[in-house]
Structure formats: C-alpha cells, structure tokens
Design goal:
Helices cover 38% and strands 14% of the residues. It has 298 residues and is α/β, with parallel strands linked by helices. It folds into two domains: 6-159, Rossmann fold; 171-278, Glucose-6-phosphate isomerase like protein, domain 1 (Rossmann fold, 3-Layer(aba) Sandwich), CATH 3.40.50. The radius of gyration is 19 Å and the shape is globular.
C-alpha cells in the first residue's frame, strides 16, 4: 500500500488528544456526572466499549452507580439521574431513537465529534470533541479521547497515561503480529471494554478472527482455541496461572509492558493497521462498514 492511511495519523495523534481532553475535563466538570448520581452511559460499537470502561471505572472508584448499555438495549424501566450518550458521528439511529424516548425523564449529555450533528437536537447538552474527529471509518482517537476526558473527570492522571502512549508509539511493532491468524483479547473490570475494542479494531480493519472475554471466563471454554500461531492478549493484570496455561497450549501470551492499559490499546490499533496493510486492505474504509449506522426505520 503506497499511501499513508488516515488511520495511521489518527492513531499517532492520540497522546496529544488525551492531553487536550485532560484540560477540557476541568473546563466542563459542571456538565459531567456529580458524585453519587446514578448514571447510564450508552453507545454503539466502539462507543459502547468506551462507555463500558468508563462505567466500571466510575462505579469502581466510588463515584456512584454507573451502568453501560448498547443504545438498542437500554432498559427503559430502570431509573437513573443522568444519561451520557457517546456518538462520534451524532447520527446513529439507535442513539437518536433512544434519546427521543428518554428525553424529559432525565438530563442527557451527548459526547460527539460534530457539534452540528443531529444528536445535539436530541440531548439537553452537547460536548463536541471536534479536534478528535476522524476521516477514517474505523474509530481510534475519538473513542480514546472521550475515555481520556471521562477518566480525567474521575481524578485519573491522564497526563501520565499520555506519556505511556508516547512510549507505546515509540516502540517498534513486532512484525510477526501482522501475520497472526487469531487473537483473543482479555480484560478485567474496566479493561474488558478495552479488550472488546481491541478485538473489534483488528476484526474491522483486517477481517482477522478475533475474540474477547472477561479474563476469568477465558478458562471456561474459550482457551480451547489457543494453539501455536495464535495470540492471547491480556489488558491489565492477568489472573494467577493464566499466562502459564496459555503458554502450555503453544499460543503466545501478551500482557503489555506495565503501562496504562489504555495506552497499550494503541498497540492493538497498530496491529490492526499492520494486518490490513499486509493483506492489501484499506484500513480507512473496511468492507461492509460506514462511518455511522443510519437505519431506514420507516
């Protein structure tokens, strides 16, 4: 592939975007959930995985009950004090339909990349991270920048996370990863959202067989696919004994380098890009995908 894909530039820009998100979090703190509020976070695809990561971080950090849902699966009978809707394009049908259903019953904050998107008319407030918008169909920096801002609002040291991301980008990517035929990604608590996202990135970009699970569930069946030539990739601290059990199958076990798991997600994004290029695929426009899912509901 002779051209430089937009995805490559967008992946490399993430540390700077995260630093900017850290500053924005301070500026918009009054618009984000208050301690103790019951919060629902919704999204679709990548945005849902970021919602899942944030929800587990917020509740796990003692900030209040927080649940994440795909927009199409929101339980309308459950009571919340506030909703956050994440949508890069701001045009996704499931998001707009859900906001129409719940608006008036609770405050809604939409986080999007386009301040003029239709989602602004369906939410009470809109927070546009337009500097993190992307030309690629595949999401990378918008999603992680959203999570960086939300993590910063919880008191996380996002500047340090951005420094970790710089380290990840400075490393040479293992060239053998572009040829791996099967990946299984694992996470624990909030990093499960990152595992799902890593699997989706490689699946979208290169059509590679990928799976993702809660780490403790991996030994309850999924480990059966582990074998030589395949990779099991853990985000965060691995359960005791798991690396040895995976290695015994002949599969390769990857567990980062002690850096923040969100920074390590960049490595998976780079693998997705490398796999697509190795197969002469366009990583910016994967087959069967569009920038947003807009459905004909008539």
């Amino acid at each position: 592939m002779s051209f430089q894909p937009h995805t490559a530039t967008e992946i490399a820009s993430q540390p700077g975007c995260w630093r900017r998100a850290h500053q924005i979090a301070r500026e918009v703190s009054s618009r984000l959930p208050l301690p103790g509020e019951r919060v629902a976070v919704v999204g679709c695809g990548t945005s849902y995985f970021m919602a899942l990561a944030y929800a587990l971080l917020r509740e796990g950090g003692g900030h209040g009950l927080t649940d994440a849902f795909p927009a199409s699966e929101f339980p309308a009978t459950r009571g919340y004090d506030r909703m956050i809707a994440i949508s890069r394009s701001g045009t996704t049908t499931e998001i707009l339909d859900l906001l129409d259903q719940v608006r008036g019953s609770l405050p809604i904050l939409a986080i999007t990349a386009d301040p003029a998107a239709p989602v602004a008319d369906h939410a009470d407030e809109t927070l546009a991270l337009d500097f993190a918008d992307e030309q690629s169909v595949v999401q990378t920096r918008f999603a992680t920048t959203t999570l960086a801002m939300l993590r910063s609002s919880l008191g996380h040291d996002v500047m340090r996370v951005a420094d970790d991301a710089d380290q990840v980008l400075a490393r040479d990517l293992d060239p053998t990863l572009s040829q791996v035929q099967q990946f299984t990604f694992l996470g624990r608590s909030w990093t499960t959202g990152l595992a799902h996202e890593a699997a989706l990135k490689i699946r979208e970009s290169a059509g590679t067989w990928t799976e993702s699970y809660h780490a403790m569930e991996y030994r309850h069946g999924p480990i059966s696919v582990a074998q030589p030539g395949r990779v099991t990739w853990m985000f965060g601290v691995a359960p005791t004994g798991l690396p040895e059990q995976v290695t015994a199958t002949g599969a390769r076990f990857i567990n980062g380098n002690g850096l923040d798991p969100m920074a390590e997600l960049i490595t998976a994004q780079r693998v997705a890009l490398a796999q697509a290029q190795a197969r002469d695929l366009d990583p910016d426009r994967p087959r069967n995908l569009t920038r947003a899912v807009v459905l004909d509901v008539h």
